[in-house]
Amino acid sequence: MIFAAAALAAAGAAQAQTAASADGDANTGQVMMVPIPGTNPAAQSDPLVQKRQADADAKAQYKARKKAANTEMKVEKAEAKADMKQQKVDAKDKRDKAMSNDAASQ
User: Fold this and answer.
1) CA distance 36 to 86
2) Region of residue 77 (phi > 0: left; psi between -120 and 50: alpha; otherwise: beta)
3) pLDDT band per the 50, 70, 90 thresholds, residue 20
4) In sequence order, what are the residues at sequence separation of 6 or more whose Cβ sits closer than 8 angstroms to the Cβ of residue 38?
5) What is the rounded distance in angstroms from the CA atom of residue 68 to the CA atom of residue 52?
6) Interatomic CA distance for residues 96 and 71, integer angstroms
7) CB under 8 Å to 84, separation ≥6 — which residues?
8) Half-sphere exposure of 105 (CA within 13 A, CB side)
9) What is the pLDDT, as a whole number, of residue 89?
10) pLDDT band for position 81 (50/70/90)?
11) What's the chain's average pLDDT?
12) Span 61-84, mean pLDDT?
């Protein structure tokens, strides 16, 4: 009985393939229209779709703000590092000058 059901399913699949290929050969000039995502007015009124879109927009805004904050932080960090290096050089020069004055006075 299982064998008979499998044979019928295989025969049905073979017929569907031949019918599809015959239809495909006859309709080679047809262009299949594919809907553009986000243009379906019925989907725009769906509250779940609206929430998903709002969440995606909020996530994109958050990522943009985070990226801008990271960029600003890196710039400030680089400026602080440059200031620290300059202060170190100034302190070293001041110390060297003070040491040379002490050595000269002795």
Assistant:
1) 58
2) alpha
3) very low
4) 44
5) 24
6) 38
7) none
8) 6
9) 97
10) very high
11) 80
12) 97
DSSP state of 46: -
Any idea how long the chain is? Answer: 106
Tokens coding 71: 């960029």
Q: Dihedral sign, CA of 24, 25, 28, 29?
A: negative
* Domain boundaries along the sequence of the chain: 42-106
Token representation of residue 83: 């200031």
Do residues 60 and 53 make contact, with C-beta atoms less than 8 angstroms apart?
Answer: no
Q: pTM of the entire structure?
A: 0.45
8 A C-beta contact, residue 44 and residue 50: yes
